[in-house]
Write a structure and sequence with these properties.
61% of the residues lie in helices and 6% in strands. It is mainly α. The mean pLDDT is 92.
Length: 162
């Protein structure tokens, strides 16, 4: 039997992994937002641009799943980025029903110009961490993601993407 880290009779939301991760994410977004707003971007727009830059998600369906956004909200974000000349929609050559997303040259340049401000904010948020603590946190979060990803994929009905 796997290790039981929580018990129903002592479980409290404020000490749960889900609450702590979500709270950290929300506070990190709040911490980054002013630096992004100074350049005319929202946190969500930044995340979309980074997902496209790093190849994490290259279409709206995957972005919606990654960001836990509904398609209407994400479409508005993509419309805004496209209107600014940062993102381009293009029909897939392999599947004409699919629309791929790409950063334009201006989009790539813009992301690279925003990175230093974001890095500065990350470093500020992590100022109380040693290099070893950050390495450990990063490693543990990677381990958690790998474990959860495998669990979700195993639980997904056959033929359905997780």
């Amino acid at each position: 039997m796997p290790t039981q880290h929580y018990r129903a009779e002592t479980y409290r939301a404020q000490r749960s992994l889900g609450y702590l991760l979500k709270r950290a994410h929300s506070l990190l977004a709040d911490h980054l937002e002013p630096a992004l707003a100074a350049s005319g971007f929202t946190f969500t727009q930044w995340v979309v641009l980074m997902h496209l830059r790093d190849g994490i998600a290259l279409n709206a369906t995957v972005l919606c799943a990654q960001l836990r956004h509904d398609s209407g909200a994400l479409t508005r974000v993509l419309d805004q980025l496209e209107a600014r000349g940062l993102v381009q929609r293009e029909r897939s050559r392999e599947d004409r029903r699919s629309v791929e997303l790409h950063l334009t040259e201006l989009g790539s340049t813009t992301v690279e110009q925003l990175v230093p401000a974001v890095v500065k904010k990350f470093n500020s948020a992590l100022s109380n961490f040693s290099r070893a603590e950050l390495a450990s946190l990063t490693s543990l979060l990677g381990k958690l993601i790998t474990s959860l990803d495998a669990s979700v994929r195993q639980a997904a009905p056959s033929g359905e993407p997780a």
